[in-house]
Give the backbone structure.
Amino acid sequence: MLDHPSLKVTAIQIKLELLLQGIHNLNLIILLGCQTITSSSFHIDPLGVDENTHDENLQEIQKLMNEISTNGALAAAFSSALIYAHAMCETILMDICELIRRVDCDAWGRYIGEKKVSFSDVSEKSIEEVRDNLIVDFLEILDRKPLLEKVEKLLGVLQPKNLSGIVPDFEYSKEELKEIDDLRHKCTHKPNWTEPLGTLKEVEEKVTYLANLGKMLLSLVIQKYSIPKLSELPKSED
């Protein structure tokens, strides 16, 4: 029972909800932190001012420092949120890949058909063992590939007739996913700590897109393999 596909599906669904809840809580912390920064008084370098500096100029300097600090905090927080959501999405997609391997190992056969194996493997192991090892190796390599490639490989296995309407208010777009992936790469390797990625709403939309992407792919797996809900499973006899 602990290894039942329905339980694996539930675990993935919990991760998806934790992704959204985690980002939502992070955003609440961001808003609270920005309010604190705005009302804070920062130390002003005495080399930049003297006793002749007018109070109104000091206030303007203080206002500018608050603005810079707020923008820096938002840039760091929004970047962190996107990087976290992207990493969670990749983990969830690999969980879905593993779920497919468990319920339909042959589904990954299209990607290992041209793989070479050693003579010792063929002579010492069954065809099923060789196939399983090749698939495990393939998934380990896929885990290191970009998010878009993971999605395209999953869609290649699932071969859905239509992607519209699977998740309410969500439409899969390779271009939009690539845009998010590129933005995550920029946040990771070329961060700009003074300019936020956008508004809080725009960042939440990107995170929600990643979560909905996971929901769409998981729904396709559930439909394709008719995986029942936990509540629909027969009770085990004691």
